[in-house]
Design a protein that fits this description.
Order of helices and strands: EEHEEEEHHEH
Oligomer: single chain
Low-confidence stretches: none
Radius of gyration: 19 Å
Number of domains: 2
Number of helices: 4
Helix content: 25-40%
Number of strands: 7
Strand order of the largest sheet: 2-1-3
Mean pLDDT: 88
Structural class: alpha+beta
Length: 125
């Protein structure tokens, strides 16, 4: 058995302990978790009170974040982009942006569904 502390804003596991903290004020923030495989950033569904390895995103949550990510990469694909002559980078960023657009057609939308710029950002000239 593990004891977990949940971040109230993100509903994700913030801290994991093998024993309940001895300080009662601190212990009040922890709940018992029967899953010994629990890991940081697992997500608790407040409606069903169940713990998941990945957050299940609603369309209402996805759209503003997706739109922000698209907005933040618009400059990379514009005609005046400093990367316009780098065909490999341009292809990668366009693939990333298309994956962002395709998110809303997926069901369910999980953390692992979100496209990553990790490989792209490491290749920014």
């Amino acid at each position: 058995m593990k004891y977990i502390e949940i971040n109230n804003q993100t509903h994700r596991v913030r801290r994991i302990e093998d024993v309940l903290p001895s300080n009662s004020a601190e212990a009040a923030h922890f709940i018992e978790c029967p899953d010994d495989n629990v890991d940081l950033n697992w997500w608790i569904d407040e409606e069903t009170d169940t713990l998941h390895e990945e957050k299940i995103w609603t369309l209402e949550e996805v759209r503003p974040l997706r739109n922000e990510k698209l907005f933040n990469t618009d400059w990379m694909v514009g005609s005046d982009s400093p990367y316009k002559d780098d065909a490999s980078f341009t292809a990668d960023i366009k693939t990333y942006r298309q994956a962002l657009r395709d998110l809303t057609s997926q069901d369910p939308i999980l953390d692992s569904t979100w496209p990553s710029m990790e490989n792209i950002s490491s290749n920014i000239p």
